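Hey, weird one. I pasted the Superoxide dismutase sequence into the form twice and got a warning about non-standard characters only the second time. First submission, copied straight from the form history:
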Amino acid sequence: MAFTLPDLPYGRDALAPHISEQTLNFHYGKHHQAYVTNLNGLIEGTDLESKSLEEIVKIAAADASKAGMFNNAAQVWNHTFYWHSMKPGGGGKPHGKAAELIDRDLGGYDEFVKAFKAAGGTQFGSGWAWLVLKDGKLAITKTPNAETPLTEDGTTPLLTMDVWEHAYYLDYQNSRPNYMDTFLTSLVNWDFVNQNLADAGA
């Protein structure tokens, strides 16, 4: 069955002024849609056509001949995860289990902010910053291009920040630091993080 572009969890103007409707029209409406369209073309008529998106990502990641399939499938998954990592009126300090584990594993919220911004800021070129649960503990990591922690055994993605230029250029031009600050202060969806922790049994 062909994949379709997943609905956003909010309206395209709902993250303004932090992320504009114009950015979402391009980023979600064109970039994300293109990954979905490309993926459908690549899996059509193959034995992966009936697999879930997560299965395709993992199978393609392990096969160098399927690099194009991996790039598109992983970008569909990463972007869907990213939209849910934000919410209108989000940001600020975490609550619940996320707060407890950030204190326990990462030295508190301020240390988390420093490390998360360092991950996003030192990702050369395109990529992602992640908060993950790895072997029962929180960790911060980064991946280039379409790479995703979804392919790592014992690792559960909890939160991601897209640092490809198209995620922020229309609103922040070349200032990735300003975009990252805004992501943390005004956009992070801690409810989503807590739900991912609960689903992982943390």
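That's the output from the first submission. The warning seems to come from a hidden character in my clipboard, not from the data itself. The first helix runs from residue 21 to 43.
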